[in-house]
């Protein structure tokens, strides 16, 4: 468990906000984040959304525990009660998280029933109150992730009202998923694709608040697209692209931060992941709970299909161990060598 016992005041450096991987339910758990950190030292990582009720009343170590190696890592909270969010933020900061983020963008039935997530786009003043309480409770940065509006809202009014109120309350950064969320008529999955993207409105938001860290999210497929956005805003947040093709993070540090990439290639990244996997297996974690996050690592390379098939078939089996990954890696190596000799 990583704890920040001294809880020193921390300022959010917009340079360190240039690239991040979005909080994604059922995906960005601690195993996923550990592997992503192997691929990139500079990319900012986020937890899955954790509700305030779970933080306050649940198994905190299971929900909040993480490895020191994951820094910089942010905790995303779901909730709408200022006092509960403040308490949850304080708990998260004590666990050592580098940032506390409030979810104002998730459109799932679960958040609608709890009146938080994207529902909060209708209540910018309340979100401002939440941010103010959280800022008073913690020294780490407090940030907001939101949509550009919901349902029939005018995005120009909804987004700028949200920004106005949370920035006035002291929010350190705003991450904008550049789509509306339709709470009625579209499923959460459909809300990730069907509402059209409007990047320009996020660019205009940055122009209106030049001194505030603004990041953009939604439909960003690769580092080139992220770099293009960085000409207009401070940060780009990758979502499904980073999960389904984590190999794109291998060059993130050199391309977007101008530093040395920590791993020479995907093969080295897998080797670096093995000690972590072995340690977790010793704690009773199932192999498949870790390997599911690396299925897409060799996307586009010879042997990628064999890699995915072997891990998908063998990792869930009872007693599956580290050799499953080693064997899968061998399949890719042989395919790559075969392709090179045939060229």
Can you walk me through this structure?
- The longest helix has 21 residues, at 322-342.
- Helix 4 (82-95) links the parallel strand 4 (73-78) and strand 5.
- By secondary structure, the chain is of the alpha/beta class.
- Strands 1-2-4-5-6-7-8-9 form an eight-stranded parallel β-barrel, surrounded by six helices.
- Helix content is 45%, strand content 11%.
- The chain is built from 16 helices and nine strands.
What is the overall silhouette?
A: globular
Total DSSP helices = 16
As residue ranges, the low-confidence spans are 1-9
**What is the total number of structural domains?**
2
Order of neighbouring strands in the sheet with most strands: 1-2-4-5-6-7-8-9
What class, by secondary structure content?
alpha/beta
């Amino acid at each position: 468990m990583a704890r920040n016992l001294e809880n020193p005041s921390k300022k959010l450096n917009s340079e360190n906000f240039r690239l991040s991987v979005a909080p994604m339910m059922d995906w960005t758990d601690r195993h996923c984040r550990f592997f992503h950190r192997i691929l990139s030292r500079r990319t900012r990582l986020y937890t899955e959304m954790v509700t305030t009720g779970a933080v306050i009343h649940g198994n905190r170590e299971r929900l909040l525990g993480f490895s020191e190696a994951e820094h910089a890592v942010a905790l995303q909270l779901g909730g709408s009660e200022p006092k509960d969010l403040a308490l949850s933020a304080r708990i998260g900061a004590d666990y050592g998280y580098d940032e506390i983020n409030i979810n104002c963008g998730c459109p799932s039935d679960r958040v609608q029933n709890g009146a938080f997530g994207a529902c909060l786009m209708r209540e910018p003043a309340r979100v401002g109150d939440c941010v103010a309480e959280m800022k008073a409770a913690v020294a780490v940065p407090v940030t907001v992730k939101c949509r550009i509006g919901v349902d029939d809202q005018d995005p120009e009014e909804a987004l700028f009202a949200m920004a106005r109120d949370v920035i006035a309350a002291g929010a350190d950064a705003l991450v904008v998923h550049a789509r509306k969320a339709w709470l009625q008529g579209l499923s959460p999955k459909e809300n990730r694709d069907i509402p059209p993207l409007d990047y320009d409105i996020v660019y205009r938001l940055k122009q209106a608040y030049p001194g505030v860290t603004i990041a953009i999210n939604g439909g960003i497929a690769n580092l080139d697209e992220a770099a293009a956005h960085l000409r207009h805003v401070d940060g780009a947040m990758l979502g499904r692209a980073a999960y389904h093709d984590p190999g794109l993070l291998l060059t993130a540090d050199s391309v977007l931060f101008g530093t040395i990439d920590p791993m020479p290639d995907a093969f080295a990244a897998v080797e670096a992941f093995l000690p972590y996997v072995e340690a977790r297996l010793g704690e009773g974690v199932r192999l498949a709970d870790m390997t599911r996050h690396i299925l897409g690592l060799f996307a586009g390379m010879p042997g990628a299909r064999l890699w995915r098939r072997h891990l998908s078939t063998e990792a869930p089996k009872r007693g599956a161990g580290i050799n499953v990954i080693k064997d899968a890696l061998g399949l890719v190596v042989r395919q790559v060598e075969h392709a090179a000799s045939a060229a």
